[in-house]
Specification:
about 0% strand, 2 strands, mainly alpha
Length: about 270
């Protein structure tokens, strides 16, 4: 289960609850969570499947250098956004430690103030860029169709369970009417899920092909460096960029494979 998030009063980003912000290190002022009232099971108006499972039409998505074969860019961006967010959070943790270490070094009597100040400014600039990227990634609220279907199945199966619990307290005709409606919705969702699984498996193959391409690119870079075609500085920068890209794509593959495992159990 994901950790509860609160808005940091200093950096403005959503971070896990705690005494201090995971991103900027400043104290957190935790807001009370709003509790939404539950809707009545029987009286709740039902949406059709076409309304529940929305077509992915995000207004704007973060840019990614990599594309996945046989996967629409929007779907790929939604998948990779969540994967990169995990990578970026780890990078932000390390960046915060670097900033803290630099601040501590500046307090030493024999510290080279000029060098450390320049370093601190560079770290701050990089930190701001990372925070901006994180805002882009967290703005992605869309879900893949397979995830939407799984969420809807959970919802309607929970409704069916609640309906069974109150079977003896409602009119028999109303009970039957509600049960038929819910069962038909679940049947239609499971039918749609089969198509989503087929599509997801095609995407999974595309991700594996993309990873092979990235691995070859890494090998090509290593070869160019070893024969002297690429400087060490350019090699280190390119290698780090490629490795990060591979890590993000692998995270997307793990997420998709997990969704497929959940879908296969339904």
């Amino acid at each position: 289960m994901p950790e509860p998030l609160v808005a940091c009063p200093s950096c403005g980003l959503e971070v896990p609850e705690g005494k201090f912000c995971k991103l900027c290190g400043e104290p957190l002022i935790q807001n009370e969570k709003e509790i939404q009232p539950e809707h009545d099971l029987v009286l709740e108006p039902e949406l059709g499947i076409s309304e529940e499972i929305q077509k992915i039409e995000p207004s704007s998505l973060p840019h990614f250098e990599v594309t996945i074969e046989n996967m629409h860019y929007d779907a790929g961006a939604i998948l990779l956004a969540h994967a990169e967010l995990n990578v970026l959070d780890n990078e932000l943790d390390r960046m915060i430690e670097k900033i803290k270490a630099t601040r501590q070094a500046l307090q030493l009597q024999k510290a080279d103030k000029a060098v450390l100040t320049t370093r601190a400014e560079a770290l701050r600039t990089e930190f701001e860029q990372m925070k901006n990227r994180r805002r882009e990634l967290t703005s992605v609220k869309e879900k893949l169709v397979i995830e939407q279907i799984l969420d809807s199945l959970d919802k309607h199966e929970a409704r069916l369970s609640k309906l069974e619990e109150i079977a003896g307290t409602v009119d028999k005709e109303i009970y039957k009417e509600q049960k038929v409606e819910i069962l038909q919705t679940i049947k239609d969702l499971r039918s749609n899920l089969k198509d989503a699984i087929k599509t997801g498996k095609i995407w999974s193959k595309g991700i594996k092909k993309t990873l092979k391409i990235l691995d070859k690119e890494m090998s090509r870079l290593d070869a160019k460096f070893k024969i002297g075609d690429v400087s060490r500085e350019k090699y280190e920068v390119s290698k780090a960029r490629l490795q990060r890209c591979i890590t993000v794509v692998e995270g997307g593959q793990e997420r998709l494979d997990e969704l497929l495992r959940l879908a296969d159990k339904r």
